[in-house]
């Protein structure tokens, strides 16, 4: 779901950088430094998962795991995703530095929104936790695809068809990510339950 350079319009790029800078600054402010190792591990998981691309028509899909990062890291998911995307752009030319802001917002903003929406379910335990985790995985990908499609659509009518294909191609990924996030959160709840109790105050 990386957007390549040379595709987006100037205003969309500028808006992406502004939102990415604000989100990353907020995430760093809310980051507990004793949780840096957790942030690094999940950023690495995001980095690796999104390197494996499966072509579907004119687009390619891959696991994203932004819902999982949102569920466990909360606001710290923003800088974690930003760093992972930066390394992908520098090392593998996925996306690019110019579109880093938009790509970061497309992946990280849904993670934060899902954390805020489903965080209470994640901390409730039992079936509510499983439902909350599935929703984090599912809706984070849905929102990421929607934001990516919106960024393309705002950059010109020529990209409208591609935007629709991107969203539809990620429907299976939404379901897969929902299940994977539910499984991962269930495991974390057993071995490190304190990781699901994110402190919001900075």
| Shape summary | globular
Order of SSEs, N→C? Answer: HHEEHHHHHH
Q: Indicate the multimeric state.
A: single chain
Number of helices: 8
Number of domains: 1
In CATH, the architecture is Orthogonal Bundle
- Sequence stretches where pLDDT stays below 50 over 5 or more residues: 198-202
Largest sheet: 2 strands, antiparallel
What's the helix and strand layout?
Layout: H1 10-29, H2 36-49, E1 54-56, E2 59-61, H3 66-73, H4 77-92, H5 100-122, H6 126-154, H7 160-169, H8 171-191
Written overview of the protein:
- The model is unreliable at 198-202 (pLDDT under 50).
- This protein has 8 helices and 2 strands, in the order H-H-E-E-H-H-H-H-H-H.
- The longest helix has 29 residues, at 126-154.
- It is globular.
- It has a two-stranded antiparallel sheet.
- The chain has 202 residues and is mainly alpha-helical.
- It has helices at 10-29, 36-49, 66-73, 77-92, 100-122, 126-154, 160-169, 171-191, and strands at residues 54-56, 59-61.
- It has one domain (10-196): Arp2/3 complex 21 kDa subunit ARPC3.
Task: Output the keywords.
single chain, 202 residues, mainly alpha, Arp2/3 complex 21 kDa subunit ARPC3, two-stranded antiparallel sheet, 8 helices, 2 strands, globular, disordered C terminus
